[in-house]
Amino acid sequence: MVMDAIFQSLEKAFDAAPHKTMLIAIGALTATRFLLLGVYQTGLNPDEAQYWFWSRDFAFGYYSKPPMIAWVIGAITALFGDTVWAVRAMSPVLIGGAGYSLFVTGRWLYGDKIGVWAAVIWLLYPAVMLGATIFTTDVPLLFFWSAALMFLVMLAEAAPGRGRWAGVGLGAAIGLGFLSKYAMVYFPLGWGLALMVSPYARKTLRAGPLVLAFGGAGLIFAPNLWWNVENGLQTLSHTADNADWSGTLFNPEEMLQFFGDQFGVAGPFLFAALLIGVVGMPFRSRLEPARDRFLLCFILPPLVIILAQSLLSRAHANWAMAAYPAAAILLPVWMIRWRRAWVLWLSVTLHSAVGIIFTAALIDPPIADTVGLSNAIKRVRGWDVQAEDLLQRAEGFDGVVVDEREVAAHLVWEWRRVDRPIAVADINGRRDNTYEFALPFVPEPGKRYLLIKPWQERLCWYGRFDVTPLAPSFVDLHATRRGQPERTLNLYALSAYRSDDPDPCATDGDR
């Protein structure tokens, strides 16, 4: 009853000034998330630190990702300095912008109420709430994806002979989406599928706007393609390597893991509702198949393709995030049509409660230990303290050597204001992270190095040195990783380099 009263009061405000009301609501939540970034007691995660590292040098591409996230970080840190807040500042803004696009799209397709629900669901997806606290490539991708969906619907709704501006906007959104993450490929794939199964989608077949859309997208994306060609297809190759099809191509446990993770990405009740809706769609006579099928074509390809990828090898939970903007529109359509609006309210309540707890844990990390979230935030915690300890331990050495990407990313970030160069060793004989290219370790006779390793693997690589184990560096995060307390960093002194010695790993079982 209370929730109904709240919704009715909001509905009255929306009926009086729908656009203004939603702008205020989205703006208020975005501003709150924006300000909270300055309160969180967390550091950058290794991916964020890597994106910041890229942002210091403008390029049309980088080792493992297209350039958009580095460009955004570079622009904001140029204005506000190299701080955690500045690196993350655009994340809640872009998430709020995506919510606005989905509000507009839902309103055009199904009316005001669906537009409101689409924005609410989007802004309160668990994965999106998490995304507002950090900055990942999914954030700009989903901003441009949502904008592309809005412009595509604008094109479908345009009067005959119109739609040129929709075509321009569509092309820009698709092109910029590809510059954010190559998962944007699911958008034209979904559009093509929609053209086959949905009469509504075929309303977008207009020669002039399509020329503008495809031409604009191609022009925007072309510099990144050229960068890849000039740099040995680095980003494209890394993306293909992520699929990891070199091992056993039947991994049902990985598929089940990915499938289960989606209940956490979208929320348990919403993802269950999506599954039920997809399975039951052919049997429900009251559906509006043209528009429902149109949206489904932007939901199912990422989910189905990544589910198959997880069976063949592995898949992270966020690899199918492109499915969820359109799902934010279709889910309230189904729930309201089937008189199951309580699913929406239950999800909003549950997600809000989880978001409040998670926010409290980021503001006061000991809360995470109390409520069992230590593992969830271990990658963004304690690096400032540990980096200071390592800096002191590095005194007296000629250089610092690491051989693991995450450690390199964190130390480059944490030591950004001190003169302590870091070199990164390629211990497996193939450069497979950005730091091995940018900061390669070239040993010099007569110099002493501090080696920092999170694991014991491939110690044989350092066999041309005299290796002296030192006391490890440890920060207690009340968590574990690979069976050892987190975070433990093993330290070694390297000295007396002998360049003429035979390959020390040639007969070592650790090779």
UniProtKB/TrEMBL annotation:
Record domain Glycosyltransferase RgtA/B/C/D-like: where: 64-227
Membrane topology designation: Multi-pass membrane protein
Transmembrane segments: 21-40, 60-81, 93-110, 116-135, 142-159, 165-189, 210-227, 263-282, 294-312, 318-336, 343-363
Name of this chain's protein: Glycosyltransferase RgtA/B/C/D-like domain-containing protein
One Gene Ontology MF term: pentosyltransferase activity
GO BP, one annotated term: lipopolysaccharide biosynthetic process
GO cellular component: plasma membrane
Compartment list: Cell membrane
Keyword line: Cell membrane, Glycosyltransferase, Membrane, Transferase, Transmembrane, Transmembrane helix
Domain of life: Bacteria
